[in-house]
Amino acid sequence: MHVLLVEDDPELGPRLSDRLRGAGFAVELATSRSEAEDWPDVDRMAAIILDLGLPDGDGIGLLRDWRNARVETPILILTARGSWQDKVEGLNAGADDFVVKPVRFEELQARLNALFRRQQGSRSNVMEVGDLALDPMTRTVEQAGKPLSVSKQEFRLLHLFMRRAGQVMSQGDILDDLYELDAERELNTVEVLVGRLRRKIGRERIVTLRGMGYRFEK
Q: Where are the chain's structural domains?
């Protein structure tokens, strides 16, 4: 899952980015409002973590601009501002959750997963598509009730496919979700990863649409 973190703190930003990467996210870090509002394809991120006290403007204004531009990406505010007025303003501006610093990483991760569940209309941590069940918190996969061993990248790809089951995704879409913008990326990487995942879950689950990409069957 690809996450945009908007945080200007020179210590917290990199530290939180590393923790998120360790939890299986691909993370982009923007350190100012102007950098965040110019970020490409922000509407294709899995989530945005937004600080309010940015050096060149207020995060609430940025949040409103995104929502006015029809950006529907789940947005979690992470800020040192903890008054009830700040929370009301943030939620009314379009935030999906509001977390006050300092916060344990485990709680932040749980809140992100809650946003993903809400987006999918589910109340359970476990995502289920057909006979496959994936738990993003424990990073485990089962097929027909039996544990399935997958690598870190295979887990990320399967998570993406299950989140967007039935949709057509190009190789570029998949690369954008799995890797950060400055990471080395090759389209052949997707073909190899899809091939490995097919051998584990069944070739028929991932359909190749020539010239378009892949579709994960529900």
A: 2-120, 127-216
Residue 122 has pLDDT above 60, yes or no: no
What's the confidence (pLDDT) of residue 117? 78
Is beta strand 168-169 parallel, antiparallel or unpaired with respect to 213-216?
antiparallel
Residue type, 206: I
- Which pTM does this prediction carry? 0.67
Q: Which CATH architecture has domain 127-216?
A: Orthogonal Bundle (1.10)
* 29: Cβ contacts below 8 Å, ≥ 6 apart: 5, 7, 13, 14, 17
CA dist 160 and 214 (Å) reads 12
> Which helix H or strand E contains 31, and what residues bound it?
none
What percent of the chain is modeled with pLDDT above 90?
Answer: 65
Quote the pLDDT of residue 124.
59
> What does DSSP assign to residue 70?
T
Would you tell me how many other CB atoms lie within 10 Å of the CB of residue 206?
18
d(CA 145, CA 137): 18
List alpha helices for the chain, DSSP H.
12-22, 33-37, 59-68, 84-92, 105-120, 152-163, 171-178, 187-201
The tens digit of pLDDT for each residue in 26-71 reads 899 999 999 999 998 898 898 999 999 999 999 999 999 999 999 9
CATH topology for the 2-120 domain: Rossmann fold (3.40.50)
Alpha carbon distance, N-terminus to C-terminus of the chain: 20
The pLDDT value recorded for residue 136 is 82
